Task: structure prediction
Amino acid sequence: MRKHLKAAMPWLTPGMGVKRWVVVLFIGVTILALGFGLLLRDLYETSGYPPLIRLVTLQFWPRWLRATVFGLLGLSVVSFSLYEINRTLVRALLRRETGPAEVARLLQESRRRQRGPKVVTIGGGTGMSVLLRGLKAHSDHITAIVTVADDGGSSGRLRRSLGILPPGDFRNCIAALADDDALTTQLFQYRFSKKEEDDGLGGHSFGNLFITTMAAVTGSFERALVESGKVLAIRGQIFPSTLRDVTLTADVAAENGATRVRGESAIPVAAYPIERVHLEPSSPPAYPGAVRAILDADLIVLGPGSLYTSVLPNLLVPEIAQAIRVSQAPKIYLCNVATQIGETDNYTLAGHVEALEAHVGKNFLTHVLANDNLEHPLPPDLGRDLVIPVLPDKMRYRLVKADVIDVGSPWRHDSKKLAGQLMNWYQTEIQGRVEA
Result:
């Protein structure tokens, strides 16, 4: 009995949505018992109880004592039956031995995530997946808006040969939002080894091929994303910023004067200072689901990730930029921990923000988050510099400083730290101020 009561205690945690139904169950059982008791009383008054019934119902005891004994016995039976029903359901649904306390914890976490804010993240590349991997622990209402300008590696090959949108960044986001099924996620991220002069599967990831195949089966790339997300039971949704086949170009300052570099993968390789990036064709139509998500968001997050080749390509879709501009939600830019070779060499925090302003205008953001843990120097041969969390007074953005660094790779974000600091800031500074 004590074991069952101890196992049931986590289910009584506030906010679980369980106690109300326990009360309803108790009321139902009480009403049923009352009806049965009235029936027995009517039988007793008309014909009396047989000796066996009098013995079973303890008629020789005082009424208050009988009520106490039967009440405790009934409560024990109901508790034991609920416990066994819980174990049966857990075995059937989770397919592994999980105790009631663990189920209660999972339910509590699920309820907390369901109450989380509607967060829209905008970017691409590994930076986006790092954020999503930590963010999924805080909210189920996540929308990732991903660039479609990728043209390198496996994604580029599939894009050129089959004419589909590049699946690589979407694959990373799907894996990041997956419900921690490690084996399935590893399968999705598995990359076939590439041999010299191999024009087959070499270099392709299983996830890219899966999404490509799903697009052929379902008839559309966006439907392929939905169905692929179902396979990995992702928490949230993933949208392209546009369905148009676009090419990213950059105006760079070369030795022989300004020139234009074509292709997302070619821009950082050129290693020239970037002045501006463009999409070809210009002004592509936005994916409607992405616009709706932005307008309905509680929080809009730009980055982290490659400034010119992951974040800005989304903002070059006019309807995406306009939706962000008119949204009343806080808009925060997550600056990279360190500069990026070929894109943001020698950039300060202000330099990152100025690049955003040059493409989408001033006052586009409300906040900027930057890492303030500078105790872990970067390897000298890395060719990168830590971004110092300082903004000049003329930039009227509210600066959020936080320790978000991965101490094992101090030029990168730590997913749990980043998401935790972001949500802590939102709940205390934004949500708390609104509720006050």
Summary: Strands lie at 119-123, 142-146, 237-240, 247-254, 257-262, 274-280, 299-302, 331-334, 367-371, 398-402. The CA atoms of residues 111 and 174 lie 22 Å apart. Residues 63-94 form the longest helix (32 residues).
